[in-house]
Design a protein that fits this description.
This protein is α+β, with helices and mostly antiparallel strands. The protein has a domain of 126 residues: Cupredoxins -  blue copper proteins (Immunoglobulin-like, Sandwich), CATH 2.60.40.420. 25% of the residues lie in helices and 21% in strands. The strands form 3 sheets. A 5-stranded mixed sheet has the order 4-10-9-6-7.
Length: 210
């Protein structure tokens, strides 16, 4: 039987566990120790990636770590049709991305880190061998939760568009006299002054009613 003290201790431990899990970002090694590997001899994937994904909890800011080689590809898409077709040939640049480890020869080991930056359904597959790898199990879906949100390193605004600087022969327009800002002392009142005025009027009314 739980005593009040033991019950309180259990609740505290649960709260600590939940708080700890909600204050960290995690790396998820895809497939665990099996990696992201396709066996071309048996025409099978190294493990059941759907079952692996179902055992994980994914949040914004987490990373998927693909321990793979150059015989496989890593495709990320938010388009379920692209995922179902096991090819990115007709996909949009805005919803489907291919990652690689920079290897140019076959059967070279590679580690690819993919950040999770969008909440909801994220799909991953290998389209190598004309989609055969995907059809034979090299594919999985995950649901990404909000969690802590994106860390600053993944939440940077896009750079401003490039504007070509003017050439040396371009004519600079002279500055326009005056400005749009009202000069001091012209009766312009800021929001702070307006608030003070309202508070003064309110105080006078209250005192008059006493």
């Amino acid at each position: 039987m739980f005593t009040p003290a033991l019950l309180n201790l259990t609740v505290i431990m649960l709260l600590i566990t939940v708080a700890a899990s909600a204050t960290t970002y995690n790396n998820h090694t895809v497939g665990g120790g099996s990696g992201w590997i396709f066996n071309s001899s048996t025409n099978t994937s190294a493990t059941n990636y759907t079952a692996w994904a179902a055992s994980q909890t994914f949040n914004l800011g987490d990373y998927l770590i693909f321990n793979t080689n150059s015989n496989e590809t890593v495709i990320q898409t938010y388009n379920v049709t692209t995922f179902d077709n096991c090819t990115m040939d007709d996909s949009s640049d805005n919803d489907t991305f291919q990652y690689d480890g920079g290897e140019t020869e076959f059967n070279q080991p590679s580690t690819i880190a993919v950040p999770l930056t969008i909440v909801g359904a994220n799909y991953f597959f290998s389209d190598a061998d004309d989609g055969t790898q995907c059809l034979q199990g090299m594919a999985f879906e995950i649901q990404v939760n909000h969690g802590l949100g994106l860390p600053p390193s993944l939440n940077q605004p896009p750079p401003p568009p490039y504007i070509e600087p003017p050439g040396p022969d371009s004519v600079q327009s002279p500055p326009i006299a005056g400005g749009s800002q009202p000069p001091p002392g012209n009766g312009a009142m800021g929001s702070g002054a307006s608030l003070q005025m309202v508070m003064c009027v309110f105080l006078v009314v209250v005192l008059a009613l006493l």
